[in-house]
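Render this sequence as a predicted structure.
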Amino acid sequence: MADLSSAPDAHVSVLAAEVVQALAPPLAATSDSILVDATTGLGGHTLRLLEAATPGLTVLLDRDTDALALAKERLNSAPCPLHFVHAPFSAIASELAAVDIETVTAIVADLGVSSIQLDRVERGFSFRGDAALDMRMDPSRGETAADVLADIQVPELTSILAKYGNEPDARRIAGAIVKMRPTTTAALADIVTNAMTGRQRRKLGLRIHPATRTFQALRIHVNDELGELQRLLADAPSLLAVGGRLGIITFHSLEDRRVKHRFRELSAPPQLPPHLPILESERPRPKFSLPSEFARGVTPSTAELDANPRSRSARLRVLQRDLP
């Protein structure tokens, strides 16, 4: 197998061993297999998969051009052809159709924020520094977080903070934000901290910054993350060849709930009228299944949690196509 370990390693991919366990077997089964990394980031999951199997082609999507450029450099010794695409993962079906690909062997999607976005202060995702409030995963298009806060009113912002951040002090925080309309990450973090009740700050303790939930909610809204996920869940399963697998890593309950319900829906036997006179062996089978070792999703090991605290909320769920 290819040894890509010498590639620049600026990021540790979450649940990488588990992704390899789930997706490498179907990729290794045939010489013309196709891997799709729907959220390339810095290419960590692809790198690990290409060390374990050599597909006939790997397609890599990301809506962040900076990430794609770094992934190209990191994967320049890949043992198979690579096709890089600047696009959100919701466009997976149309982007594959554009290069005449009808079915693929494996799809991986890591829904977490890339380290290139979190760690570069100028991207405006983090309160651990001061920069313009941007938060766009694709910095070439769309409204920034500052643009959103410039015009939004208290009821809508309250809804965003409550729905996407599960923020108990959503209305208080929304009122303070609308009053001040911050344009930088530091200003927003200060406003949230000062607006939050002492009770909520005490509940968060020292481990979680008071602005964490607000930043998460705004990021989800700015990037339409749940809408993107719904479109991926609608299109990706039908792209799998028989025996192919789709692996999705989520980082909070809003994402995981949608993935879990969609996978269960697809893997459930078709509903038949009650008391229908039909033999058990004649009952129609679902086209998809949940591999037994991933049936409830898998979470990071203790060793991974110790080495990479950002993995603490990650969960991998896997769907397999069994029938045409």
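Summary. The two ends are 30 Å apart (CA to CA). Strands lie at 34-37, 57-62, 82-86, 104-110, 240-250, 288-289, 315-321.
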